[in-house]
Specification:
By secondary structure, the chain is α/β, with parallel strands linked by helices. The protein folds into two domains: 71 residues, PGBD-like superfamily/PGBD (Muramoyl-pentapeptide Carboxypeptidase, domain 1, Orthogonal Bundle), CATH 1.10.101; 89 residues, Barwin-like endoglucanases. 35% of the residues lie in helices and 19% in strands. The chain contains five helices and six strands. Strand 3 and strand 4 form a beta hairpin. It is globular. It starts with a helix and ends with a strand.
Length: 202
């Protein structure tokens, strides 16, 4: 009888451990903690989350995850599983890494200068546009078109309301304090329209 109880307890403990591991792999609505803060920080860096980083996986965080998943061609379920986390971390390394963190008011802690610019938006789906930038990179979110006389190509930027980006394209109408922000779809570009933004040169 005692042996049966020990076996039963062992099975329950093993099941609990497996469940804990499964939960740890997926970050979902309702969860709290530093793992949620990490996801929120990456979403904020990349321009998908505009709320503060509070470590609470609520409605706005879920919507930001869904928007990120859609932009990367992932399954849109609002949950951060392994594939979504990998995609977030990959983008973070490319645009948001190297220790450039945002302060509590959403401004990078380290930058060389800040410019106030007139921003428009574009995508590869726009009439007359191709799939590649002037330097040969694939046109997608995180790429921006600039006037190289003002911002040299290859410069890393942080743009309010958009996120981290790289100056990697040019355009005939993009002169002086004008900047064109690439999006993954024409609908997103149209939704952005034209805005005045602050551009932090990193």
């Amino acid at each position: 009888m005692v042996k049966k109880i020990i076996i039963a307890c062992t099975l329950v403990c093993m099941t609990t451990m497996v469940s804990s591991v499964s939960l740890a792999k997926t970050i979902d609505r309702g969860q709290r903690g530093h793992h949620v803060s990490k996801v929120q920080t990456m979403l904020k860096h990349q321009g998908f989350l505009h709320d503060s980083v509070d470590g609470i996986y609520g409605h706005n965080t879920e919507q930001a995850v869904r928007k990120f998943q859609k932009s990367k061609g992932l399954a849109v379920d609002g949950r951060v599983g392994p594939s979504t986390m990998n995609a977030l971390e990959k983008m973070e390394t490319r645009y948001g890494g190297h220790g450039t963190e945002l302060s509590h008011n959403g401004v990078p802690n380290k930058y060389s200068r800040v410019l106030t610019m007139q921003a428009s938006a574009y995508s590869a789906q726009d009439p007359g546009n191709g799939n590649y930038t002037a330097t040969g990179s694939r046109l997608k979110k995180g790429i921006v078109s600039v006037d190289p006389k003002l911002i040299p190509l290859g410069t890393r930027l942080y743009i309010e309301g958009y996120g981290y980006a790289v100056a990697d394209d040019v355009g005939g109408a993009i002169k002086g304090h004008r900047i064109d922000l690439a999006y993954d779809s024409r609908s997103e570009a149209l939704q952005f329209g034209r805005q005045t933004v602050k551009v932090y040169v990193l």
